[in-house]
């Protein structure tokens, strides 16, 4: 029993099938997430290790080498990139795209824990990184109170509120400074009391403790005993007693002025008299020394030598919102969640918080990528509705009956809603790729219904009753419908084997479209004939208005003209074939002329500018230069908001900054994004910006790489930095001369000033000072050394205690010379200059290795008028020209993705043709007929190339998807033609030429209907309206051009080829039902 027969005989089952697809499709739709691109997990893990004060070369030998030695054995690693900065080592492990990132994380964690690192190295931190984890929104919080008050309020009242929003996974903090309890030492006061920074550290170790001391046990109770020795307030911390030296002198007490212990303050001659007459000495200290003269020891509170403050850590980053100091909250969405719904909930929470904020505080979004996502998704949804309207118009035009047209259109909601069921189980979201696939599927899913209903109508016109017409008409085209649908599905099969990010994107498009057309096939072979048999009067009794009659008459006259032209073409088939294929080969000459790029730039209404100030610049200087750029940008009429951040990324280097720019809505500005970029690049070439490295980042390209986001990224690998440096400068010069690139730069930076302290070991030994004491004294003087924890009882927060000189005492290198180290037994203080010398040397700011080889990476953007593929090939050629033997170049980031894409499409096209040939060979039971059908493909490529060239569009990821889709669509029409010619030849016994003419005449109408339906479904997207049009247009232009040209040529070329090779044609396809019946009879 065939599918149409089953549905006609059991209509209730068919109705239940349709109801199930609609009902469960709607349920699935409401639970699907929404995002701009498919949720693709970039399998990247970073291992970050901190060793404060260590130079990059020390980080390389002591941290990176031992870690890499064990990490290389982790399965599935594609690349290892290590970056060494002062005090920080970052090892980035990139795995192949199909690697289970959670399993990899466990394996990496196990390997890292097995390595023994130096004892004072902070434990390595391991993170998963995903490009989709970029914040969907940046909120800015500003207040006109001191910054530490803002930090405290955000920490206590705001941050956790956003973490509770459904769908928020994490929050990045811009301009943030962790809360710290600060002990600000005064070096001059330390000298007065002959103390060193390590004495303060030792006091905290001894006096600021909270420990369990055991427990009390009776017959009935057990009570814990705890010594609450931690300071609970600023007052308690100020009162800590500086009574003993815990290191270096065996615990010698700090004594009174008249005491006799050499390690303290016992000598008055050169001691107290000098201190008492020192004008810098406080009155409290003077009174204390006077009142304790001759005492064996004194009580010295911490407040005599230091100020204490419940504050924040030393700033290493800052943020501003429209010129005001701010804290930025970067909200990261969990994978699979609805980006638009999450952003909506965040904005509702912002409205609530505004009612609760203190006077003078404000909060609001300053950078919101969800706005573009929402606009692009809504535009695609509108395009989908417009597509349905256009397709319905074409169907009505050709079918001439509103009821028959509605029957055809039933396939659209059933196919789309049925696809959502599979989305739910596949974990897909409603994104650009899946929605565009559904939009294009609208014109394809109606093809099978058109084919079936048109043939049912033909049978009814032969005088059959509705049930017989429905059954015979549907059965007659079942094979052609199955073959045509499988031809589309088969061309997307190779995409499943394409690796990398592009493969993930393509697979979602291909699977979505394949699922939709397979459901439409099921609908066409079951529900459509059932509805005709049950409800619709498809016979001649139906009234036809004047327009329908005229249109029908016009079409058959057109078909008659086509039949005469085809007869002429068959007589001159050699000339027709030579001319046709000559046009195809001539069109290939346009292929090298086309611009080739990974993806067109989209005007998202947002932009990112990264800047880098000279090596060694301070946070204050970088902040000032960022403010200079802010001032320029805020004056531009097309800029709505500017949110800036300094430091806090790329290892927390304070000479790096980023500006997140939100532009005014597209309807309110005349300039498009690329035009604005051009204005900025011209501005940034002026003299006042020459000390800055400025990169303008197109955020629309960020989804294709986990790197920096420039068009061109090339890694130069070798063994010596000096060679790589020289070569990279030569390459940059050549690339600049070519005129194809902007934003040329490398990641190599040298000249980082470093103050090196050179101890004199003899002097240290005579002064009883160890290297550890010297290092600790410097660290707790200028490094903000941590010592213990402080608990704020008001808001129950616990944070680090940090010791450091007051800021004005560690501005210049010479300030280091006066760091107090110890007091000798003669009572004289010893300073750093007494036992060590200083020197300032330039050093590398960072060192980078890739796959255990040293690397310098080149960065550039390609000018809009040049092809990315050509620019990449030229850059690779220049690199190979200058690199010495054993030194290599390889694409990185977006360049690597582009290379993978450019090589993946020929593979996908070639293997798609092979798989389609195999499928059709099985269906037609012939080696020859599939080859005839495949002859339509070259002309679809001709149409695609020609329309891209005339439209001044590039060959990119999206137009490549259109090419793959086009193969299936081109074969679909040829299948209809060849299958019907075979019926006329092998079933009705017509001669080859007569069969070709008759079949072509009869099938012209459904071929034109299906082709125009597909074209009409692409027209709304081709209009280039709304957000996301930049990437939709190339795809649909390829489809429109390819369908137009391939349909026009295949209507003549395919019959001519069939006629030419018919003498060696294979057998017709075997009817499966007849074959099974024959086998059953023969078995008896």
Automatic annotation (TrEMBL):
A GO MF label: xenobiotic transmembrane transporter activity
A cellular component annotation (GO) from this entry: plasma membrane
Top-level taxon in the UniProt lineage: Bacteria
Transmembrane segments: 12-34, 382-399, 406-426, 432-456, 477-499, 505-525, 574-594, 904-920, 927-951, 957-981, 1002-1023, 1035-1061
Keywords recorded for this protein, A-Z: Membrane, Transmembrane, Transmembrane helix
InterPro entries, per database record: AcrB_DN_DC_subdom, Acrflvin-R
Name by which UniProt lists this protein: Cation/multidrug efflux pump
Gene name as annotated: acrB
